[in-house]
Amino acid sequence: KNEVEQSPQNLTAQEGEFITINCSYSVGISALHWLQQHPGGGIVSLFMLSSGKKKHGRLIATINIQEKHSSLHITASHPRDSAVYICAVVNHGGSQGNLIFGKGTKLSVKP
Amino acid sequence: NAGVTQTPKFQVLKTGQSMTLQCAQDMNHEYMSWYRQDPGMGLRLIHYSVGAGITDQGEVPNGYNVSRSTTEDFPLRLLSAAPSQTSVYFCASSYGTGNGYTFGSGTRLTVV
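The joint structure predicted for all components is written out below.
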């Protein structure tokens, strides 16, 4: 079983829809990251969370440490949000900076 | 512009050849790491460094060497390329585990 599981694997939405991507993990963590990878390959860090909730523009990330679960929400989705969204955790007690990655969620937003 | 610079962006090697993937950052980050990304799999850690002169192995280190002689540079060396090393390679840096990561733009490597 993978230590970091994301769902769904693929997601197609219409422009304007509210989108939720989920991440569950099975290890103790010190932080969780949400990353965005656009076609063409570049990876951008969106959020780093250790508790609670963070918001940046139309993006909201939440984490529930007790339930070992995080969600990434996109409000008023737009075709430019089309990308692969990757959840990664920092294993508590693991090697410094050792990120464990989910396999990603491929989002396609149709106009 | 501040960030992580990876070179080359694309490379084709023949089996048995060696090469070095370059990674440089200008943010004075202590932590640097190399990952490979393969279809259907998450990124996997190859090697990492927590500061100049300190390196350690990640999940998939075989066939790769690293060194960290300066804070800025963290090259990844393929000793004798194999088709199984065909992948996209990313370098990343951070101030540490409690901070965000900055990724390079990636190197797409094909070994034939």
